[in-house]
Amino acid sequence: MKRIKIFAATLFYLCCTTSLLAISEESIKAAFLERFTMFIQWPRPVESYTICVYDDDVFAQTLQKNYSARLFNNRPLKVIPLKMGTPTEEMLKCHILYYRGSKPHQNEAVLNTLRKNNVLIISDDDDDTKRGAMIGFYLQNNAFRFIINQRNLENADLSVSYKLLNFATVIEPTGGTK
Amino acid sequence: MRRIDSSIASQMTRYLVITSLFVIIFGTFVISWYSTNHEKQSYLHESQLQADLIVDLVTAPLAFFDVQGINTNITQLYKNSNIVLAVVYNPDKTPLASYNPGRRPIPKLNLPLGTYYENTGWFPWQTNKLSSTLEIRQNAQLLGYLYIEKKTDRITSFIVDFLKSVTIFSFALLFFVYMVSRMLSKKILQPILTLTEAAKEVAEKSNYALRVTHVKNDEIAYLYDAFNHLLSDTESLTNHLESRVASRTQELQDSLETLKKAQLQLIESEKMAALGNLVSGVAHEVNTPLGNAITGGSIIVRETQLLLRQMNEGTLKKSFMEQKLNILNETSDLLLKSVNQAASLIRSFKRISVDQSVEDKQDFNLYEYIEEILLTFHNKLKKIPVTVTIEGDRDLVIKSYPGVYAQIISNFIQNSLLHGFNDTITDAAISIRFEIKNNSLVLTYTDNGTGMDEKIKKIAFEPFTTTKRNAGGTGLGLNIVYNLITQKLLGKITLNSEIERGVLFTLTLPLEHTGSSKNLHS
Question: What pTM does this model have?
């Protein structure tokens, strides 16, 4: 717990006293991923988080490195880097699927499969929230922001806190919150 | 006429108003206490909810390190004028963002968690500010702290508004109570006032024919009926009172006349008895000298006839003559003494008997008169025997009723002889003393007889009090003495006596004038 506090304080120090770009984008996004898990609830209790990083080894390494010595939202973290062309079945093990740049094959059948398995799909591109992703990052005033597609979250049977919805930019709102 | 200091209506109104005032003050205090507490709790609860809402608003920006987002969210607090300070702290309690329109110093976060009033006094309305310190957590992860400080103007204004309302209500209630009490007292008291007026009229004018009427059939009607009944009875009694008084007066007068007659008869009877005793005494006393006189006369006749016969026969000797003449001389002397004694006795008896029958005042020598009275008891006194002593001025002459004195002293002596001296007494004595003191004759009569016990002493002067009724006592002696002293001589009599220590009668008798027998004769 103390480590988390120190980490959060460090982040605040970084974001508030220096330019956002002065620190690693991967580190910030890794922290954001952890924060998402605080506000999003899976239908089944999660004992340890599994994050699949599609075709972004740098981010996968950063994530693994940042949370190797500490817990991820109070739980162990397992990071699975996925190569391009990895079959969809591999992705079903993940709680979170993150991708940037090259995107996994996205047709309606694959998306349905991922939704059925309650996989939280996070993209580095906010436009992807219109194509199946549930959360998409974008940059605004040198700060990372994100868009949430509430419909997609609900379709994946993932509950999201109203606090997060109130903070984020929400598309396709459903009105349901946790 | 009695003056009414405070009417019942005023008292009733005063009591009701005072009671209402007390209830209002007490009620106001209790209600204000309760309401203020309730308002404070409500404000506290509301503040807690508000703080929770602010925590919700800043949780996500805090979680995603968005200080600008935090500031944006808490800046909206300006809409709530009661919030004077809101600060978001890091988990290490360093300030991160704040809403501080008053530019107050940011406090260090060392306050206990929770929402509470600060600087509160004993009374619930004594408070200064409200502060809330909350943790900002998400999924059990501590993200930071929120501190909010609020004004309590709302509570103060609530109390002011409440007191204004209560004051207006209290005055209205007091006025209402006053009016109701006046109305009630008038309604309840009017019949009583009517009754009071009626009673006053009856008291002042003795108008017992007056009647009061009451329309309703209530308690007042009972009171009126009782009052009317009382007046009716009083009227009836008043009407018959005069005739009853006259009748009773006549009865009393008749009784008084009867009593007076009976008293006179009794006194007359006693007087006749006394006279009877006197006659008996006279007969007894005169009998002896007369017997002596008769004896003497017989001797004189016999001796004279003897001398005459011897003188006629010529056998008379000188020696015989001398012997018979001596006898005749002695006998004549005895005869003369006896006759003189009888005459003296009769004179005394005559005087006493005349005195008792004559009611005029006379000048008489008291000492000699007492001696003459004693003379009538000479034989009876000698028989016991009784030593009688008289002490007083031998020359004192008073103007009074001698017969009354004779009757009084005779009664005393007869009582002493009859009741005082029994067979066991050997040195019976009677003492009569008199002296002039303060223009009154103080006469004391004492004997050393058996005396009286307390019971007899208390009723000694009452009529028909006797211990020797079977032996001829009438029980009227001392009663007559008392009446003679108090009514005839206008004096006083006291009695002291103890068993076996005799009696002491003290008579105090006012005198018209006194003198000495020498002056009287001159």
Answer: 0.51
